[in-house]
Amino acid sequence: xxxxxxxxxxxxGMAGSAAAVALRAAAPNASIALLGDESHPPYDRxxxxxxxxxxxxxxxxxxxxxxxxxxxxxxxxxxxLDRAAHAVRDSTGDVWRYGKLLxxxxxxxxxLAFGSDFIYLRTFDDYQKLRAQVKPGAHMVVIGGGFIGSxxxxxxxxxxxxxxxxxxxATIAARPFPKDLAEYVTRYYRDKGVDVRAGVTVTGKTIDxxxxxxDGSTLKADAVVAGLGITPNVELxxxxxxxxxxxxxxxxxxxxxxxxxxxxxxxxxxxAVAFGRHIRVEHxxxxxxxxxxxxxxxxxxxxxxxxxxYFYSDLFDxxxxxxxxxxxxxxxxxxxxxxxxxxxxxxxDQGRVHGVLLWNTWDQVDHARALIAEKGPFDAASLKxxxxx
Length: 389
Prior knowledge:
Blueprint: E1 2-10, H1 14-26, E2 32-36, E3 71-74, E4 78-82, E5 87-90, E6 95-103, E7 107-109, H2 124-131, E8 139-143, H3 147-158, E9 162-167, H4 179-191, E10 195-198, E11 202-205, E12 211-213, E13 218-219, E14 223-226, E15 230-232, H5 235-239, E16 248-249, E17 261-263, E18 268-272, E19 277-279, H6 284-298, E20 310-315, E21 318-324, E22 331-338, E23 342-349, E24 352-359, H7 365-373, H8 380-383
Helix pairs in contact: 1-6
């Protein structure tokens, strides 16, 4: 079967749905189709590891796609893109012709070769599968001490599960946090009852399904959750000859190397003016804002994506917002109101602020963005008192 639309969006996630809503507002009479490879309509992804393990409700996660009045086709994956014909073929063989195309296909979780039964917590189906295993005393193993691993370990613990964390680094969040803060967070998790096994990885499975660990131990688990990051879904774009480098390359208006094709969300590598280079960000704010700007640009508006996205996390009673690059290998300047409970961490590279961690410090994201936009040079003395404002 063949379909014809003014605008075609590949990916029914947060970026794709935000684009559809913005596109409809900017182009009331345009025909719009949205293709998604899941069986569910668009939903917010962060609650899968955050709010739904506290007091969040499943009914609250669904995106307002109805107001976009689009043709929503679920259970379809784009498998081929013919740029010359302005056509996409999906996994059922249908052909979708477009005037403008948005690729918002997100990413695929990195998987372990022996972990076919592990839960990678990327989709609502993954969440439901994990939720079905949750009961007081259930033993859950979380592989990974990064963003998703630390969130879901806290969430499972709060729901009465016995949680073991395994990761190769020396501490939880070793890559983004300064050493002393990461050590504090690791102690905090242990004090909450999480069995944190730093420096330990999973190397395989025994015949009876237990996990084999690098320290020689074995673990039996009711469920195993792996948070190992994602790989952007660039295969379609790459095969079609679009520019790809750690994501699909786009300009400030989110156009790819083909002027009729746009990209947004986890899959897009966009120009960060403050850094003078392209970056790719896998967070909610980037997906929603990039999607919204892409939709407006597809409709012919001048709506450049010109902001640095922020992200946030909740770790038991700890919380933070952050902007820019959080990399513990950079020079860090820590300014605490109360050590490790409230304060700001600045990440510097050659005297310029590249990232700001707002630790239990709120309503400062815009000020942090403004600080990153300044050329500096900065040091510990000149940063003192800059945030909060």
